[in-house]
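Methods — Computational structure assignment.
A single polypeptide chain was analysed. Its primary sequence is given first, followed by the predicted tertiary structure written as structure tokens.
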Amino acid sequence: MKKCISLILFLIVSNSVILAQRTELCEMEVLLGGGPNLFFCDIGDGGIGPVGFIAARYYVKNDIVARLNLAYAVGIDTDEGTKNFTRKYSYKTQIIESTIQLEYYFFYSDLFGRKDWDGLVLNVPKLGLYAFAGAGTIFSNPNPEAGNQDYTFDDDYSKISLVVPYGLGMQYRLNKKWAASFEVGRRFILSDYLDGFSPEASDKNDMYYFALISVNYRFMPFSGIK
């Protein structure tokens, strides 16, 4: 009988510990947002276009966060107004970027204790600053044009490339569930054909920047806590 009671107590304690750990480690966040991008390619001198993205964060620890990111962007630029204006080249490219990133929160503001709409005290950091880095792939679909010149662009290149994002961001928490974020990130790619054009004199690959604003919803999946 004592062995049976001991076994039951052991199972209860074990399940409680597992549930506590699971609750702590399964905190996640869904992000939805967008903003401007800035492409630096061989055509033009920095073109601005739109980007939209959706992401999921997994809080490994309070200051370390794993993130899956999926973005869609359009890059547009032209030689007009640059040193290569006589070429009259232009392009429009669409990219799909899929990355895995790690975020490190190096600063948190003091906890704040104002009440939310339900009268609950919110003991959470109001502001967090983080740095991020990661890796992934992009698929690009460039459409270069040569203006009024009779020129054929090379299409013998891969439209898939490795991408390495890194940058800085900030998150402002509205309450325990909702927050807003802003981040700026640079993207290195292993391709010089983001615009569909790579001149012989080019010695650097293309790159681009994202400036992203998002709305974030935080929750605990599979924990039974809403």
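Note: Confidence is low (pLDDT under 50) at residues 1-25.
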